[in-house]
Design a protein that fits this description.
Ribosomal Protein S5, domain 2; 278 residues; lpxc deacetylase, domain 1; five-stranded mixed β-sheet
């Protein structure tokens, strides 16, 4: 994965997760790293913000004092995978456009993307892990000296679907289309009914989640593959939020049937360590 940058400002528009129309400007800047513009007009480094999770609605948050940016993981996950650097994120009213994926951002960024040298790569000094149960965990293994890559081994599973594993290296050619189009899984029928009612009353979102539409092995396999890609997108968003400015985290990541809350615990451990240059 090499460093990329924007050749010009990019405007992304659409409804926020809660239905209000909003815009987000992604602007190239000279300073390394990713920066976020607050409603006060002050820009703060992404790595200085506090990463959290909304456990009720299952999304990530970025906090700076009283300001909370909700559901940043899709944009940040795409940025990690692109090696995108030197960007100022300015969300109007501190809300990001949302369609359940990263596609809104990828469609806007792609025409303005250009290569821009190399990134700095850092790794953790020792393996770290967070375990919810013997078969539900996430762990990171440090990169070997000179190994500048982020390898992933992702497993997802559900009783009604089975399980699937996705392995690879972040930033490889052809990943961004799959990564940006993958949606989360909606398995709660009560929430599905509530969402349908909300759409009838004017909520602007349509199919922002994916569900099992046909009870065949082929349908289950396709759904599991999409869920693996969305899990990767969310996880990369967490790692982007804790990456030092102008750098990416190198190493090998293994995750088994966990989500945002467990990711956040691992990110807290990572932030307590001292980085090692590779």
């Amino acid at each position: 994965m090499n460093r990329t940058e924007l050749s010009r400002p990019v405007l992304v528009s659409g409804p926020s997760a809660f239905g209000w129309e909003t815009t987000c400007v992604l602007e190239p800047v000279r300073d390394p790293g990713i920066h976020v513009m607050l409603p006060t007009g002050d820009a703060v480094p992404l790595s200085d913000m506090t990463l959290g999770v909304n456990r009720l609605l299952h999304f990530l948050t970025l906090r700076w004092k009283k300001f909370i940016l909700r559901i940043p993981e899709h944009l940040l996950g795409l940025m990690f995978n692109l090696g995108l650097d030197g960007v100022l994120i300015t969300p109007r009213n501190f809300r990001l456009p949302y369609d359940g994926r990263a596609k809104l951002f990828w469609d806007a960024i792609r025409p303005a993307l250009r290569p821009s040298g190399t990134l700095e790569w850092l790794t953790v000094p020792a393996p770290l892990a967070v375990t919810a149960s013997p078969d539900h965990y996430i762990k990171i293994v440090p990169a070997a000296p000179g190994c500048r890559s982020f390898a992933f081994d992702i497993n997802v599973g559900y009783p009604e679907l089975g399980e699937a594993t996705l392995r690879g290296v972040a930033g490889e050619a052809g990943q961004n289309e799959r990564l940006s189009s993958a949606r989360p899984y909606l398995r709660n029928r009560g929430i599905e009914a509530y969402a349908a009612l909300a759409r009838m009353l004017g909520w602007p979102h349509g199919e922002i989640t994916v569900s099992l539409m046909a009870d065949t092995d082929e349908a289950k396999a396709a759904l599991l593959e999409e869920l693996c890609w969305h899990r990767l997108l969310d996880m990369l968003g967490s790692f982007m939020a804790v990456s030092p400015q102008g750098a990416r985290i190198a190493g090998s990541i293994v995750t088994r049937r966990v989500g945002h809350a467990v990711d956040i615990e691992l990110m807290r451990q990572i932030r307590k360590t001292s980085w090692v240059k590779v």
